[in-house]
Amino acid sequence: MARPRTASRDAGEVDAVKGQPGQAVLPIYRRRGELVRLLPSVILVLFILWFGRAQVDSRKWLDIGTEAMYLAIAAAGVNVLLGYTGLLSLGHAAFFVSGGYAGAILSPALGIPPWLGFILAFAASAALGAVLALMCVHLHGFYLTVVTFGFGALVPAIVVVAKNQLGGPAGRAVDHFVDTSKVPGAGHGPFSLQLGLFYLSAFLLVVVLFLCWNLVRSRWGRAFMAIRESEVAARVSGVNAYWYKVASFALSAGIVGVAGWLGAQRFVLVSSQVATPDQSFRYVIMVAVGGMGTLAGPVLGAFAFSFGFAIGWVQNTFRDYQGLLYGTLGLLAIATAPEGTVGNLRRLARRYQLRRARRGAVLRTMPPPDVAPELQLPAVRERAGTEGNAVVLEVSGLTKRFGGVAALSEVDLVVERGTVHALIGPNGSGKTTFINVVTGLYKPTAGRVDLDGQSLEGLSPAVRSRRGVARTFQNLQLWRRMTVLENVMVGAHARERVGLVHALLRTPKARRVERRLSERAWGLLHFVGLAGRGRDLAGTLAFADMRRLEIARALASDPEVLLLDEPAAGMQVSEIHDLADLIRQVRDAGVTVLLIEHHMDLVMGLSDRVSVLDYGQKIAEGSPAEVRHDDRVVAAYLGQETA
Ligand code: ADP
Ligand code: MG
To answer: What is the pTM of this model?
Structure first.
């Protein structure tokens, strides 16, 4: 099948160089399997080994090293929620304390060996995090942050109330601590306890980073990031945003709990003193200065704080100005947001590569993988018993009022399988509202929507996506700080399932799911002609390509019906031609298309049937030729058509 693909669109090298810097941090060009990716991990491990050896005789530095390790764990935990999922919590220090208490109280109570206490700490903090999240993640932005802040401030009060169990403000001694001198490498020196704890903390940090590394390359991590970039788009792509936010919150709290357990081991004491909003704020600053949504950022931030403040000069100079210092760093974090230090380093590396490219060096990106031809086409999911249904989407009496405005009133619409059905009408006539109601983002005031003869009433956008409703957005809703490929992979979110534990450990099952999702996504990128850009960030695409990417993402769920909301808006004439070809191929592959458009040429040349909306009412319907000559349509719509 011929595809509308221009040479330049497939030539990733050329286009990628031209990408628009400044919109987002662009990936650094890497060749296949380049070991540079492992460099930060290698540096970290070498640093840990060196530090343990070099500071074997310094109790002070061993303590500081241990603190750096567990603060890095806490920062990595905060990063799961803040950096990947985009939710700001100012109460996470509470999970640090709950982790400490869980280890101190539960592990003797349950008779569990003390060195397994970190599992209890994780579980208890994650459970507490989940409880809080269940109550508050439906809130947005500021409101969510305020609730977490209040929660964090509540913890010291709880500790006072439960004085007998938790020890009151002074804290509770940990009598069930790990004999860290038995940790391999701790040796027999005077500070073997401290050295052992340092190695234990460092080991847990490496484990946490390994899990996070797997997470961002999994269906779970991508769902988190999609929620961060555009929650609406995530929901209509089949991601149940509420539960993913709860999961992210719990995972993040659990990781911070492990850090708290290590802190309790260090001081042999748990106390609510560290559960201040101040401390929660400090975690956030560490993550933000280091780099939100990067793996190395939180570690870098935590190390800078721990080691930085341990230097005598810094201590002497800033002892009385800590608030000022944190404030300044907060401003710095905003100035370098969102990717912080790590993001800026990456930007520098990329600039260096581009400069070399301008001098003639060839920047070789990994070519897109070959994909079986059958995966390069849209597909309609097989559904037992519904294949014969000639009507895909049936809408009757659909009404949507916003206060006094009836954006839709009593609209009936029947979309037949395998057709391109156009829905046209002047600005403000209710077209986008129609899509929002059909996809479940808006609840209709009255009327019903049936897909394949089954009512969609009361179903969430995510469930409707799984049933076969997919859409694009008039105002693009791409996940800009994710790659083009990842965008399409999240589009296919609902086609696969994989448990969080599988994802974190990247088990063979998780790998199989990844392979299937990425194959499917590459196939659809070939289909829309964007395979050459697969590894670039979506935010760097040209406008017309962004629209094509939204189509690929919507197709990834194997929809029954694809709702396109003004896909040609802002496109040039030649691009509109390509788009028309693409839509025809989508229909030929068996996906029914509901096309909302403003460009009459596109609508008339492409549609099998046209319905016209005006002021929320359907005023005409028929073949393109009939509609074109309908008096009411001419009066309401074509008369003011300028394009
Ligand atoms: P179209 O897509 O055809 O340009 P819309 O569906 O966006 O039109 O809008 C139809 C009408 O509904 C407009 O008058 C608009 O102001 C109103 N409307 C749409 N969404 C909302 C909303 N969330 N709240 C209030 N009014 C809305
Ligand atoms: Mg609209």
So the answer is: 0.90
- Rounded Cα gap, residues 92 and 78, in angstroms: 7
Domain 388-638 CATH (choose: 3.40.980.10, 3.20.20.70, 3.40.220.10, 3.40.50.300)? 3.40.50.300
**Residue range 434-454, pLDDT digits in tens:** 999 999 999 999 999 999 888
Tell whether ligand 1 has an atom less than 6 A from the beta carbon of residue 407.
yes
Burial of 7 (0-12, 13-18, 19+ CB in 10 A): exposed
Least distant ligand from the CA of 423: 1
The bridge status of strand 561-565 relative to strand 592-596 is: parallel
C-alpha distances in angstroms, 82 versus 92, 282, 596? 11, 13, 36
List the residue whose alpha carbon is closest to atom 16 of ligand 1: 428
* Inter-residue contact 461 to 486 (CB < 8 Å): no
CB-ligand 1 contact for 425 (6 Å cutoff): yes
Going from the first residue of the chain to its last (643 residues), give the mean pLDDT of each consecutive group of 10, the final group possibly shorter.
Answer: 36 36 46 68 92 85 93 96 93 92 84 87 95 91 90 81 74 76 78 88 96 94 95 95 96 96 85 81 90 91 88 76 78 78 83 80 73 82 63 93 90 93 91 95 94 91 94 94 94 90 94 93 94 88 93 94 92 90 92 88 88 90 87 72 44
Domain edges within the chain: 26-350, 388-638
Alpha helices by DSSP H, listed for 378-507, are: 431-438, 461-467, 484-491, 500-505
Cβ–ligand 1 contact at 587 (below 6 Å): no
Burial degree of 640 (CB within 10 A; 0-12, 13-18, 19+): exposed
The residue whose two tokens read 């403003």 is 598
428 lines ligand 1 (CB under 6 A): yes
Instruction: Report the CATH architecture of 26-350.
Output: Orthogonal Bundle (1.10)
Q: Are strands 172-173 and 269-270 parallel, antiparallel or unpaired?
A: antiparallel
Question: Does the CB atom of residue 405 touch ligand 1 within 6 A?
Answer: yes
From start to end of 574-631, where are the E strands? 592-596, 609-614, 617-622
Ligand 1 atom index nearest CA of 430: 6
> What amino acid occupies position 278?
D
